[in-house]
Specification:
With 207 residues, the chain is mostly helical. It has 9 helices and no strands. The protein has one domain. 80% of the residues lie in helices and 0% in strands. 31% of the residues are buried.
Length: 207
């Protein structure tokens, strides 16, 4: 029997939450749920929309790019909402985010501030494209008063590339790519971040 701190118990809880997100794909509310999930994940909700996007895309492969469009638009709008929270409500809600929302710590906020001072566009773009918590960057963009147009452009590019990549791969490869992503997601994320950082270093070196 496994104790309460056993990793297998933690994994089962994660799987339950994952399955709860996925179950919307089997209902008539799948697309609205995808939009709402993408919107709220950009400011405070802990579960990314990717699993539901994959499930919907697999259920109707020909509509996968439409699902990616819904996901991208909702996520960018949610990012703008996070920006609004940061610029207007942070002085009232900062304790709530630091105490209850995963990813929000004073150390992380200081790191994000440094990244914004170095290159705001690439900071938002990277957070939008990779598994880095996008919500931390959306709210902090408002807190640190990053140029809103720069923020939106970087969000549109990063979020769209992420979701259309997922939907496009499913449209081409179907169930096989979902199994591969599910099995190797953590390794792929790490490899992708390494490649992305390496690409930015090369660009910086060339310029």
């Amino acid at each position: 029997m496994h104790g309460p701190s056993d990793p297998k118990n933690k994994k089962s809880l994660t799987r339950k939450l994952y399955d709860w997100v996925l179950h919307w794909a089997d209902t008539k509310y799948g697309v609205p749920a995808l939009g709402l999930l993408a919107f709220f994940e950009s400011s405070f909700f802990p579960i990314p929309p990717d699993p539901l996007l994959m499930a919907l895309s697999l259920s109707k492969v020909k509509r996968s790019l439409w699902y990616a469009t819904v996901c991208s638009i909702a996520s960018v709008l949610g990012g703008a909402f996070g920006y609004w929270i940061g610029i207007n409500l942070w002085h009232l809600m900062s304790d709530f985010f630091f105490n209850y929302i995963p990813g929000f710590t004073h150390a992380v906020f200081e790191l994000v501030r440094q990244k914004y001072s170095e290159h705001a566009f690439f900071a938002v773009f990277t957070a939008g494209l990779t598994p880095i918590p996008y919500k931390v960057f959306t709210i902090s963009a408002g807190v640190f008063e990053i140029n809103f147009l720069t923020f939106v452009m970087a969000s549109v590019l990063g979020r769209s590339m992420r979701f259309f990549l997922v939907a496009g791969l499913i449209r081409i490869f179907g169930e096989q790519i979902k199994q591969f992503i599910d099995k190797y997601f953590d390794m792929l994320s790490i490899a992708f971040i390494i490649l992305l950082v390496g690409g930015f270093l090369i660009i910086k070196w060339l310029t």
